[in-house]
């Protein structure tokens, strides 16, 4: 209880040389709570995509905490690079490759559970050491001092990345490139037959029984545009293929409009078509204009 009380007092004090600010305190507790909830959701989620989204939630809240502590460049990098690029790359790999919940129960790499346990113990040790170091009575220098050492936040991060943490930076870059290449390799499919040339595709379109052009839509040259009404070809014949296959299988297709069929036949022979009051088409004399 004393350790927790001391930690709360350190948090309430804020950065060294800066008076406690209510806004910073509220921001810390809100973002810290959301970051911890996102981390727990990542571990406890049963779906890999959901875990990746929970990590994104944690990273966004960490970025807000960085900005609140005057690490503006680090906060922007956290959002743009890690949340916007790295995590979206993970989501892309998961969506393309596909990961099932049962996959985690199969140990594809021998000894990976043991290595994961060692990594967990090491990470837990680092976390405990960091918490214990916070109670040794030494006040931290704060980001203001660290930024002023190299002339700013960007300069300080650049010096650390390309000197002290150069190996970790390069290894992380190689890991991300490997993930992207692995996603492309896993999604690649070998072609079982050679790709057809444009000449072969054109020749197949004009094979007898095939349609060299697009098939007519339902209702073309018909009395209505219902999807269950077959289309009429320019020669007056019925195009049964214009009706969707499910309607044909269920027997829901309607008969072609006989009046339209008769009109098309007369028009094909350049005969005028007149409709009597009963609705029956009557052919006119040959050579007359249609509708005369």
What does this structure look like?
With 292 residues, this protein is mainly alpha-helical. Among the domains are: 82 residues, Four Helix Bundle (Hemerythrin (Met), subunit A) (Up-down Bundle); 44 residues, no CATH class; 35 residues, no CATH class. It has 11 helices and 4 strands. The strands form 2 sheets. It has a two-stranded antiparallel ribbon. A two-stranded antiparallel ribbon has the order 3-4. The longest helix has 26 residues. The N and C termini lie far apart (103 Å).
Tell me briefly what this model is.
With 292 residues, this protein is mainly alpha-helical.
List SSEs in N-to-C order: HHHHHHHHHEEHHEE
- Mean pLDDT value: 74
What is CATH's topology name of the domain at 19-100?
Four Helix Bundle (Hemerythrin (Met), subunit A)
Taking pLDDT < 50 over at least 5 consecutive residues as the criterion, the unreliable ranges are 285-292
Number of helical stretches of at least 4 residues: 11
The major beta sheet can be summarized as:
2 strands, antiparallel
What is the CATH architecture descriptor of the domain at 19-100?
A: Up-down Bundle
Distance between the termini: 103 Å
Shape: elongated
Q: In the CATH hierarchy, what is the superfamily of the domain at 19-100?
A: NADH-ubiquinone/plastoquinone oxidoreductase chain 6, subunit NuoJ
Strand order of the largest sheet: 1-2
Helical fraction equals 55-70%
Strand content: 5-15%
Q: What structural class do you assign from the helix and strand content?
A: mainly alpha
Query: Given this structure, which CATH class of the domain at 19-100 is correct?
Result: Mainly Alpha
Rg computed from alpha carbons, rounded to a whole number of angstroms: 36 Å
Annotation, overall tally of beta strands: 4
């Amino acid at each position: 209880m004393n350790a927790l009380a001391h930690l709360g007092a350190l948090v309430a004090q804020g950065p060294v040389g800066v008076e406690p600010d209510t806004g910073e305190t509220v921001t810390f507790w809100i973002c810290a709570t959301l970051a911890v909830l996102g981390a727990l959701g990542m571990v406890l989620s049963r779906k890999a995509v959901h875990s990746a989204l929970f990590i994104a939630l944690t990273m966004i809240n960490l970025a807000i905490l960085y900005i609140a502590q005057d690490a503006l460049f680090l906060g922007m990098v956290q959002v743009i690079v890690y949340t916007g690029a790295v995590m979206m790359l993970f989501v892309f790999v998961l969506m393309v490759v596909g990961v099932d919940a049962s996959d985690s129960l199969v140990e594809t790499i021998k000894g990976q559970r043991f290595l994961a346990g060692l990594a967990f113990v090491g990470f837990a040790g680092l976390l405990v050491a960091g918490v214990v170091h916070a109670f040794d009575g030494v006040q931290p220098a704060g980001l203001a001092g660290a930024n002023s050492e190299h002339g700013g936040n960007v300069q300080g991060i650049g010096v650390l990345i390309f000197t002290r943490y150069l190996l970790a930076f390069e290894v992380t870059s190689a890991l991300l490139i490997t993930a992207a290449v692995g996603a492309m390799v896993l999604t690649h499919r070998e072609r079982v037959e050679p790709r057809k040339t444009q000449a072969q595709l054109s020749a197949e379109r004009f094979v007898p029984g095939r349609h060299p052009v697009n098939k007519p839509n339902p209702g073309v040259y018909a009395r209505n545009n219902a999807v269950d009404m077959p289309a009429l070809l320019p020669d007056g014949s019925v195009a049964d293929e214009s009706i969707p296959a499910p309607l044909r299988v269920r027997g829901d297709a309607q008969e072609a409009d006989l009046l339209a069929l008769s009109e098309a036949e007369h028009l094909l022979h350049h005969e005028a078509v007149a409709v009597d009051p009963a609705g029956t088409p009557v052919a006119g004399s040959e050579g007359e204009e249609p509708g005369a």
